[in-house]
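Is this the right way to post structure tokens for a design question? Let me know if I should format differently. Anyway, here goes:
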């Protein structure tokens, strides 16, 4: 637990002592909630891309302050063309949980066009603002948010919530990425996240944010919440996530020879495509598009480890439109079946294989994320 580093009055210190004593009440009574996110960013109103269902001008598409809830009006608008009986108890889409090692994902019996805006609403409902969305690539990324459930809780927290928000900080932040894939008329949904923790510097005089390890259990928990949001019974969602059977045998292994600009994944193309996609999400590469038939993920990557000086834009540059010297490169992460495995390489914008240090760094990150997910 971490307090914000601001001067505290005697009353604040007393408040901390009281809350520390009450923090276990919710846990002992079984009322404790382990996930309660609040975005640290106030965003612009959300918008649905023009090639998907247009959103009406309501509060569900505005950046939430705290946890938003699904409005009955929005639900009725979404179901107004359905059978009247469905408006009372709408039929939930079929949802199946799949598992491969520590990786879990959903297969939903709905098209990506129908599911995409629902997932945007879901993240708003969970207390997040949307940092970016790319309908063409099937990607939705949230801004950083704090899990307020890690703040001391109890009746006093409920009574003095606004005061508590000003005094306490969990010192942890998460942001999530959701990726949709079309498969045989259904939609696969993957959730991954990045985690950061505020830690003291070596001399103890200041604090800095450092990346922590991704928690597959947190990804699974958010998948369960998404299942409930889509209409699955809460108990069934928890059981399905817990009891999801293995989709295949042992986890993926990857091998990258020293100095080589290729990565060999000892899996079939379909399984490698799935796991490399999740590794790209976890690495937070900017994905512009993908083509499963050709085996390409189209990414933009800014290599900051080349040793070259990256010039930041000056005030005059921003005013008069001069370009920043730091421009991300467009490239492809390419997968191709090779014997019983799959070769992963990096291609430039012209489709030629890259063998330089940048390509090796990208493959090294993917290699690490693949092994972490086993």
């Amino acid at each position: 637990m971490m307090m914000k580093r601001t001067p505290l009055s005697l009353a604040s210190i007393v408040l901390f002592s009281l809350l520390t004593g009450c923090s276990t009440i919710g846990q002992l009574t079984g009322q404790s909630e382990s996930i309660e996110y609040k975005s640290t960013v106030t965003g612009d109103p959300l918008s649905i891309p023009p090639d998907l269902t247009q959103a009406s001008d309501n509060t569900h598409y505005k950046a939430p302050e705290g946890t938003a809830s699904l409005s009955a009006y929005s639900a009725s608008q979404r179901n107004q063309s359905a059978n009247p009986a469905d408006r009372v108890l709408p039929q939930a889409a079929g949802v199946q949980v799949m598992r491969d090692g520590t990786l879990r994902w959903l297969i939903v019996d709905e098209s990506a066009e129908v599911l995409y805006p629902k997932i945007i609403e879901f993240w708003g409902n969970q207390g997040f603002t949307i940092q970016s969305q790319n309908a063409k690539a099937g990607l939705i990324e949230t801004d950083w948010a704090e899990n307020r459930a890690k703040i001391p809780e109890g009746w006093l927290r409920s009574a003095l919530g606004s005061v508590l928000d000003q005094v306490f900080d969990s010192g942890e932040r998460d942001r999530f990425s959701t990726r949709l894939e079309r498969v045989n008329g259904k939609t696969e949904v993957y959730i991954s996240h990045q985690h950061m923790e505020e830690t003291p510097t070596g001399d103890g005089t200041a604090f800095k944010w450092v990346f922590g390890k991704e928690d597959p259990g947190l990804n699974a928990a958010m998948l369960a919440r998404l299942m409930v949001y889509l209409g699955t019974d809460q108990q069934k969602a928890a059981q399905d996530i817990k009891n999801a059977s293995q989709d295949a045998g042992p986890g993926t292994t990857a091998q990258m020879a020293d100095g080589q600009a290729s990565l060999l994944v000892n899996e079939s193309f379909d399984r490698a495509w799935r796991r490399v996609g999740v590794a790209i999400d976890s690495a937070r590469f900017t994905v512009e598009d993908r083509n499963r038939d050709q085996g390409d993920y189209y990414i933009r990557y800014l290599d900051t480890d080349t040793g070259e000086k990256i010039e930041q834009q000056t005030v005059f540059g921003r005013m008069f439109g001069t370009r920043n010297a730091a421009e991300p490169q467009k490239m492809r992460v390419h997968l191709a079946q090779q014997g019983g495995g799959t070769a992963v390489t990096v291609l430039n914008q012209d489709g030629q294989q890259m063998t330089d240090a940048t390509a090796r760094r990208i493959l090294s990150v993917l290699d690490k994320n693949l092994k972490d997910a086993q």
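Format looks fine. Someone answered above. Worth noting: The two ends are 30 Å apart (CA to CA). The first strand starts at residue 2 and ends at 3.
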